[in-house]
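Can you give me the bound-state structure? Components:
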Amino acid sequence: MGIIRRLRLRVKRQRYKARAFRKRRELRCVADRTSQIGRGDVLLFCTARNEDVRLPYFLKYYRNLGVNHFLFVDNDSTDGSLDYLSQQEDVSIWHTTASYKRSRFGMDWINHLLWRYGNNHWTLVVDPDEFFVYPFCDTRPINALTDWLDASGVRSFSAMLLDMYPKGPIGDVPYKRGDNPFETALWFDSGNYTLRRNHAYHELWIQGGPRARAFFADHPEKAPALNKIPLVKWSRRNVYLSSTHALLPRGLNHVYEQWGGEKPSGALLHAKFLSTFNDKAREELKRRQHYAASMEYRAYVRKGPDSTDLWCRWSERYINWRQLEILGLMSKGNWA
Amino acid sequence: MTVGIIMLVHTDFERAEQVARHWTKSGCPVVIHVDRKSPTAEYDRFSMALNADPLVRFSKRHRCEWGKWSIVQATISACEVMLAEFPQADHVFLASGSCIPLRPVEELVQYLHDRPDTDFIESATTADVPWIVGGLSDERFTMFFPFSWKRQRYLFDKSVELQRKIGIRRRIPQGLVPHMGSQWWCLTRRTLDEILSDPNRRRHVAYFREVWIPDESYFQSLARIHSRKVESRSLTLSKFDFQGKPHVFYDDHLQLLRRSDCFVARKIWPRATRLYQTFLGSGGVAAGRSEPNPGKIDRIFARAVDRRLRGRAGLQMQSRFPRQGFEHGITAKPYSMFQGFTEIFEDFEDWLTRTTGARVHGHLFAPDRAHFADGQTVINGALSDSATLRDYDACQFLTSLIWNTRGERQCFQYGPADTQDINFMMVRDPNAQISIISGAWAVPLFRSGSSFAQLRQTAARLQKIEAQQLEIMRASWANARVRIWSMAEFIESPMEPLQTITDEFGQSGQRHLSEAPRLRDLSGFGQFLQHLKNEGMHPYLMGDFPVEQSDHMQVPPVRKPYLVR
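Here's the bound-state model for the whole set.
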């Protein structure tokens, strides 16, 4: 790597950090319980907008994994989720009315909170519809993973986004507050993913799955990216680039082995296709606050949301992480 | 008499305290060394808690650095305390704060009591062991290591490089043969006493001070001099991965550990509550007089390391994206590509399915869509038949298909009209069985009856593509099993090649083909080719077909040798 290139990346990284620092003014603290954060705690960072219906299960799931503290950015919710979150004992929450799009889809806000509170912690950055699964997650808490990663000198952990969908039209079974979303959306695509390496930042670009199959068959290059690096040992030098797909410095994106072996990795079960999706699609289309001018939502609405069935004969029914590992979607690596 | 335990502790003091109490409860004296790098407050709390126990002593604290002499120094200090203060200790067992005894302590005491002269210490010469981390074997005994491997890696590497270049070789003290092995040993009082009171101790210490990772070689080498009887294995179950860091045990290893019959295991995750409860709370799992048997645990950890270093063949995923040449298997299982067979046989796909039982697809890489077997639009792994999705990355489409259908042999048809992106990959792939009848693409043209001007263009295009493809297929670096016949050559005796190809499938056994696929009616084909020639387009890939006027097509009697790989 040339010195010019290196300098350019450095400048870029500093620019993103400065941007995040500037955007801190858009955040107003509603409940600050960050003094509870202890050394070695695993912190979860999340941006949410009108996700009240999902939050109870979300919190329960991650508390159960062993996450110690939650840091939320509430993007102008109107459904009472702000109240709900500010009552939780292990949640700190910031509120903003600023544009989601202009804060690079919430990443500026999150980058700032990470800079401020994440330093020297293992940090998990997820959306309210993403559920982190890692090897042995049914028997070992998340600290077991982070302790092991620390001992192995690994600073970032990859978890590919796995779109989960129900059998039958998406709106058929209504999702109720507190429900496990994977009781209905329990199917996924196991083997139709394409990977390529991005030369600029070295991250793997993964596309495919049900969304590519159903909505982007004619434009596979526009299909959403599924590669994510949500778990990072945070340092003030780090910055997320676009969503959690890639970070700088680039070393953090080297979550894949290039010499034949397998590094350990997990998955983010994506509970996007619940009954709430139809309203969300229409609303987001109106707001136009999503990535690539809401390509995905448009494709979806065009197709007729109520009749869309992502299920096919070869859809796989979700059982547990071991199944994902056998199917080759994630790996234990050398963790045994 | 009993066994004395030396515990090296640097963190997780609560667990260490729990383990120490467990030892002393069974009458085993414990000498604890606490790393001087640990916070004083925590040390004070820890030593206060254990001070009341008459069987516990604390030794002088040293600042320990991984891979350095200080760890041995700490061990020696603790050993001296042990020998001086606890005359009842016949054996001395070296353990760490994250070790736990799996069997009742009495069983260990009894086991050692039955073997009063045996020293359990893994110890082998460098020439005989494969477990070398960091690429240093002999050199760790013949170079100087002033820098820390963990903190000053760059300087460490440079200093090794420099010493190699200058050719620095330290002299090994006379009478000493360097041995190495697991850091965790159990020595008899007599051996340990002799090691510590060796008249050459100063010389040895001066030497080992500069050796890299002396905790794996100081006692191991000296035991060879002083021991009456060395049993070269460790009583502590402790496995290391490829980075030289110990594997960690968690709650879900409980059953494995129970059945291992090992005395002590390392290293236990401090928050593995169930393990601590089971093995310390109830006093361990009794196994009578049986020998330790860590075989199953060994295999699990060996598999984990193998997965990390080699991975699963034919898998591309978020954490495994091999560079070209480092795939360790481009695809997961053997598969077959057929080119030109459906063109000259009427029922080739059905016939192949019947005779071999394999899954036979049509043209997977056809321009309109992927023609999966049985007309399916989606196949294993929810792989779609969409041509654009497939062509977005045709190679990964193929590797995904083979990965998704592991356990069932896949066959597919191919031809010059299809997406050509996969040729390079297939030729490199030892799993690929490639059979090509060159020039067979002309048969559908001949049978289509379209206008000649159009046919001529198509024929020219297909011939060009196939010629380029054959060039790739004949590459000298091909790893695939490639067979190429010209069409003329093939139809002369089609059964022989078919037999060879299907024999390689394996599952059909050594049976002879009882049934042949039906050859299409090719009368007039020679004439058709002549027409093309007359139009100025020379088809040559199919070999020589005579221009016969009769309705009966005759195979040319002259055989042209053609490359068969």
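A couple of observations. The mean pLDDT of chain B is 88. Chain B touches chain A through 51 residues (CB under 8 Å).
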